[in-house]
Amino acid sequence: MDYEQIKFEQDEYGVATITLNRPQRLNAIGTRLGFELVDILERVEADEAAKVVVFTGAGRAFCSGADQSGQADPDAEELTERYGYRRTKMRPFGQWGVLFEMLGHYQKPVIAAVNGIAAGGGLSLALASDIRIASTTSSFIAVFVRRALVPDTGTSFLLPQLIGPGRASEMMMSGRSVSAEEANEWGLVNRLVEPDSLMPEALKLAREIASGPSLTIELTKRLITGVTREGFDIQLQREGWGQSIASSSEDVLEGGQSFREKRKPTWKGR
Q1: Which structural domains are found in the chain, ordered by start?
Q2: pTM of the model
Q3: Which residues of the chain have pLDDT under 50?
Q4: Fewer CB in a 10 Å sphere around the end CB: N or C, the chain?
Protein backbone atom coordinates (compact mmCIF):
# COMPACT_ATOMS: atom_id res chain seq x y z
CA MET A 1 0.00 0.00 0.00
CA ASP A 2 1.28 3.47 -0.86
CA TYR A 3 1.22 5.75 2.18
CA GLU A 4 -0.08 9.26 1.73
CA GLN A 5 -1.16 10.15 5.26
CA ILE A 6 1.51 8.57 7.43
CA LYS A 7 5.27 8.81 7.57
CA PHE A 8 7.17 5.67 8.47
CA GLU A 9 10.76 5.23 9.57
CA GLN A 10 12.56 2.24 11.05
CA ASP A 11 16.03 2.71 12.49
CA GLU A 12 18.93 0.33 13.01
CA TYR A 13 17.76 -0.35 16.58
CA GLY A 14 14.45 -1.78 15.40
CA VAL A 15 12.34 1.24 16.40
CA ALA A 16 9.46 1.74 13.95
CA THR A 17 8.17 5.32 14.10
CA ILE A 18 4.69 5.93 12.65
CA THR A 19 3.79 9.61 12.24
CA LEU A 20 0.19 10.54 11.50
CA ASN A 21 0.62 13.09 8.73
CA ARG A 22 -2.54 15.13 8.24
CA PRO A 23 -1.49 18.26 10.11
CA GLN A 24 -4.04 20.40 8.26
CA ARG A 25 -6.80 18.20 9.82
CA LEU A 26 -5.06 17.82 13.19
CA ASN A 27 -4.29 14.22 12.11
CA ALA A 28 -7.96 13.26 12.16
CA ILE A 29 -8.50 9.67 11.05
CA GLY A 30 -10.54 9.17 7.91
CA THR A 31 -10.84 6.10 5.70
CA ARG A 32 -7.42 6.35 4.07
CA LEU A 33 -5.47 7.09 7.25
CA GLY A 34 -7.28 4.27 9.05
CA PHE A 35 -6.37 1.72 6.41
CA GLU A 36 -2.80 3.00 6.22
CA LEU A 37 -2.44 2.50 9.98
CA VAL A 38 -3.83 -1.05 9.79
CA ASP A 39 -1.52 -1.87 6.88
CA ILE A 40 1.67 -0.52 8.47
CA LEU A 41 0.92 -2.14 11.84
CA GLU A 42 0.48 -5.51 10.13
CA ARG A 43 3.76 -5.05 8.27
CA VAL A 44 5.66 -4.06 11.42
CA GLU A 45 4.24 -6.94 13.45
CA ALA A 46 5.40 -9.42 10.80
CA ASP A 47 8.90 -7.88 10.62
CA GLU A 48 11.31 -9.61 13.00
CA ALA A 49 13.71 -6.66 12.76
CA ALA A 50 11.07 -4.31 14.21
CA LYS A 51 11.11 -4.37 18.01
CA VAL A 52 9.14 -1.32 19.22
CA VAL A 53 6.50 0.96 17.67
CA VAL A 54 6.37 4.71 18.36
CA PHE A 55 3.27 6.72 17.40
CA THR A 56 3.32 10.50 17.07
CA GLY A 57 1.61 13.21 15.06
CA ALA A 58 2.79 15.80 12.54
CA GLY A 59 2.24 19.46 13.36
CA ARG A 60 0.53 20.64 16.54
CA ALA A 61 -1.74 17.63 17.17
CA PHE A 62 -1.25 13.99 18.08
CA CYS A 63 -4.66 12.97 16.72
CA SER A 64 -8.01 14.75 16.94
CA GLY A 65 -10.00 11.53 16.44
CA ALA A 66 -12.43 10.73 13.66
CA ASP A 67 -12.54 13.15 10.75
CA GLN A 68 -15.67 15.24 11.35
CA SER A 69 -15.09 17.60 8.43
CA GLY A 70 -17.86 16.03 6.38
CA GLN A 71 -15.45 15.62 3.48
CA ALA A 72 -15.07 11.92 2.67
CA ASP A 73 -11.84 10.54 1.24
CA PRO A 74 -12.35 10.53 -2.55
CA ASP A 75 -11.07 6.96 -2.77
CA ALA A 76 -12.82 5.68 0.39
CA GLU A 77 -15.04 3.18 -1.40
CA GLU A 78 -12.19 1.76 -3.47
CA LEU A 79 -9.92 1.53 -0.42
CA THR A 80 -12.58 -0.28 1.59
CA GLU A 81 -13.19 -2.75 -1.23
CA ARG A 82 -9.47 -3.40 -1.75
CA TYR A 83 -8.15 -3.48 1.81
CA GLY A 84 -10.83 -4.24 4.28
CA TYR A 85 -14.40 -4.82 3.17
CA ARG A 86 -14.88 -8.19 4.80
CA ARG A 87 -12.93 -7.33 7.95
CA THR A 88 -14.74 -4.04 8.50
CA LYS A 89 -18.15 -5.70 8.12
CA MET A 90 -17.27 -8.22 10.83
CA ARG A 91 -16.12 -5.73 13.50
CA PRO A 92 -17.88 -3.22 15.72
CA PHE A 93 -17.23 0.28 14.31
CA GLY A 94 -16.06 -1.22 11.00
CA GLN A 95 -12.60 0.01 10.09
CA TRP A 96 -12.09 1.57 13.54
CA GLY A 97 -12.86 -1.80 15.11
CA VAL A 98 -10.24 -3.51 12.94
CA LEU A 99 -7.60 -0.96 13.99
CA PHE A 100 -8.29 -0.98 17.71
CA GLU A 101 -8.86 -4.72 17.98
CA MET A 102 -5.44 -5.10 16.35
CA LEU A 103 -3.90 -2.71 18.87
CA GLY A 104 -5.61 -4.55 21.72
CA HIS A 105 -3.86 -7.76 20.62
CA TYR A 106 -0.61 -6.25 19.35
CA GLN A 107 2.45 -8.27 20.33
CA LYS A 108 5.16 -5.62 20.14
CA PRO A 109 5.58 -2.76 22.63
CA VAL A 110 3.93 0.50 21.57
CA ILE A 111 4.90 3.98 22.80
CA ALA A 112 2.72 7.04 22.17
CA ALA A 113 4.70 10.27 21.89
CA VAL A 114 1.80 12.67 22.42
CA ASN A 115 2.82 15.99 20.93
CA GLY A 116 -0.50 17.86 21.11
CA ILE A 117 -4.23 17.28 21.35
CA ALA A 118 -5.35 13.66 21.71
CA ALA A 119 -9.13 13.66 21.36
CA GLY A 120 -11.75 10.97 20.77
CA GLY A 121 -10.15 8.21 18.75
CA GLY A 122 -6.83 9.99 19.21
CA LEU A 123 -7.20 9.57 22.95
CA SER A 124 -8.03 5.92 22.29
CA LEU A 125 -4.82 5.57 20.26
CA ALA A 126 -2.79 6.91 23.17
CA LEU A 127 -4.64 4.66 25.64
CA ALA A 128 -4.07 1.58 23.48
CA SER A 129 -0.32 2.17 23.63
CA ASP A 130 1.69 0.53 26.39
CA ILE A 131 3.56 3.71 27.38
CA ARG A 132 2.62 7.37 26.95
CA ILE A 133 5.22 10.15 26.90
CA ALA A 134 3.59 13.55 26.52
CA SER A 135 4.67 17.04 25.66
CA THR A 136 3.81 19.82 28.10
CA THR A 137 1.68 21.25 25.26
CA SER A 138 -0.48 18.13 24.97
CA SER A 139 -4.09 17.75 26.08
CA PHE A 140 -6.51 14.85 26.36
CA ILE A 141 -10.24 14.96 25.58
CA ALA A 142 -12.85 12.20 25.70
CA VAL A 143 -14.74 14.28 23.17
CA PHE A 144 -17.46 11.71 22.38
CA VAL A 145 -20.11 13.25 24.63
CA ARG A 146 -19.73 16.57 22.82
CA ARG A 147 -21.02 14.79 19.71
CA ALA A 148 -23.77 12.93 21.63
CA LEU A 149 -21.83 9.69 21.22
CA VAL A 150 -20.71 7.13 23.79
CA PRO A 151 -16.98 6.50 24.30
CA ASP A 152 -15.76 3.89 21.84
CA THR A 153 -12.64 2.21 20.40
CA GLY A 154 -11.85 0.85 23.85
CA THR A 155 -11.84 4.17 25.73
CA SER A 156 -14.55 3.11 28.17
CA PHE A 157 -12.41 0.10 29.10
CA LEU A 158 -8.87 1.50 29.08
CA LEU A 159 -9.40 4.93 30.62
CA PRO A 160 -10.86 3.72 33.96
CA GLN A 161 -8.01 1.22 34.24
CA LEU A 162 -5.44 3.99 34.00
CA ILE A 163 -6.98 6.76 36.10
CA GLY A 164 -9.81 5.09 38.02
CA PRO A 165 -13.57 5.14 37.41
CA GLY A 166 -14.19 8.51 39.09
CA ARG A 167 -11.74 10.53 37.01
CA ALA A 168 -12.62 8.53 33.89
CA SER A 169 -16.30 9.31 34.47
CA GLU A 170 -15.48 12.99 34.77
CA MET A 171 -13.59 12.96 31.48
CA MET A 172 -16.16 10.90 29.58
CA MET A 173 -19.28 12.60 30.94
CA SER A 174 -18.05 16.20 30.72
CA GLY A 175 -15.90 16.00 27.60
CA ARG A 176 -13.61 18.64 29.05
CA SER A 177 -10.00 19.08 28.03
CA VAL A 178 -7.47 17.62 30.49
CA SER A 179 -4.14 19.42 30.48
CA ALA A 180 -0.78 17.70 30.24
CA GLU A 181 -0.03 18.51 33.89
CA GLU A 182 -3.34 17.09 35.08
CA ALA A 183 -2.92 13.99 32.90
CA ASN A 184 0.49 13.42 34.46
CA GLU A 185 -0.89 13.87 37.98
CA TRP A 186 -3.69 11.41 37.27
CA GLY A 187 -1.36 8.77 35.83
CA LEU A 188 -2.75 9.05 32.32
CA VAL A 189 0.79 9.54 31.00
CA ASN A 190 4.10 8.06 32.14
CA ARG A 191 6.02 11.32 31.98
CA LEU A 192 5.94 14.89 30.73
CA VAL A 193 8.72 16.50 28.74
CA GLU A 194 9.26 19.80 26.98
CA PRO A 195 8.16 19.81 23.31
CA ASP A 196 11.71 19.77 21.92
CA SER A 197 12.57 16.77 24.09
CA LEU A 198 9.52 14.65 23.21
CA MET A 199 10.86 12.59 20.31
CA PRO A 200 14.39 12.28 21.71
CA GLU A 201 12.96 10.96 24.98
CA ALA A 202 10.51 8.62 23.25
CA LEU A 203 13.20 7.25 20.92
CA LYS A 204 15.67 6.86 23.79
CA LEU A 205 13.17 4.71 25.71
CA ALA A 206 12.14 2.81 22.58
CA ARG A 207 15.77 1.98 21.78
CA GLU A 208 16.40 0.91 25.36
CA ILE A 209 13.47 -1.52 25.12
CA ALA A 210 14.47 -2.61 21.61
CA SER A 211 17.96 -3.52 22.84
CA GLY A 212 16.50 -6.04 25.29
CA PRO A 213 15.49 -9.67 24.67
CA SER A 214 12.55 -9.18 22.32
CA LEU A 215 10.88 -12.54 23.01
CA THR A 216 10.94 -11.90 26.75
CA ILE A 217 9.58 -8.38 26.29
CA GLU A 218 6.76 -9.57 24.05
CA LEU A 219 5.90 -12.29 26.58
CA THR A 220 5.96 -9.68 29.34
CA LYS A 221 3.50 -7.57 27.38
CA ARG A 222 1.24 -10.58 26.96
CA LEU A 223 1.34 -11.19 30.72
CA ILE A 224 0.39 -7.57 31.39
CA THR A 225 -2.37 -7.37 28.78
CA GLY A 226 -3.54 -10.97 28.95
CA VAL A 227 -5.56 -10.38 32.11
CA THR A 228 -7.50 -7.56 30.47
CA ARG A 229 -7.64 -8.62 26.82
CA GLU A 230 -10.84 -10.64 27.12
CA GLY A 231 -12.53 -7.76 28.90
CA PHE A 232 -11.32 -5.35 26.22
CA ASP A 233 -12.86 -7.47 23.46
CA ILE A 234 -16.16 -7.71 25.33
CA GLN A 235 -16.19 -3.97 25.95
CA LEU A 236 -15.66 -3.25 22.24
CA GLN A 237 -18.87 -5.20 21.62
CA ARG A 238 -20.69 -3.27 24.34
CA GLU A 239 -19.43 0.04 22.97
CA GLY A 240 -20.76 -0.98 19.56
CA TRP A 241 -24.18 -1.64 21.11
CA GLY A 242 -24.23 1.73 22.87
CA GLN A 243 -22.97 3.59 19.82
CA SER A 244 -25.62 2.03 17.57
CA ILE A 245 -28.31 3.51 19.81
CA ALA A 246 -26.61 6.89 20.27
CA SER A 247 -25.91 7.20 16.55
CA SER A 248 -29.60 7.04 15.70
CA SER A 249 -30.55 9.91 18.04
CA GLU A 250 -31.52 13.44 17.08
CA ASP A 251 -28.74 14.71 19.33
CA VAL A 252 -26.00 13.03 17.29
CA LEU A 253 -27.09 14.96 14.21
CA GLU A 254 -27.00 18.17 16.24
CA GLY A 255 -23.56 17.26 17.61
CA GLY A 256 -22.04 16.90 14.15
CA GLN A 257 -23.79 19.94 12.72
CA SER A 258 -22.90 22.23 15.64
CA PHE A 259 -19.26 21.12 15.39
CA ARG A 260 -19.09 21.97 11.69
CA GLU A 261 -20.89 25.29 12.29
CA LYS A 262 -18.62 26.04 15.28
CA ARG A 263 -21.46 26.78 17.67
CA LYS A 264 -22.76 25.46 20.96
CA PRO A 265 -25.09 22.48 20.46
CA THR A 266 -28.71 22.45 21.55
CA TRP A 267 -29.41 19.03 23.02
CA LYS A 268 -32.91 17.51 23.06
CA GLY A 269 -32.13 14.30 24.93
CA ARG A 270 -33.56 12.09 22.23
Answers
A1: 6-196+211-215 (3.90.226.10)
A2: 0.89
A3: 85, 89
A4: C
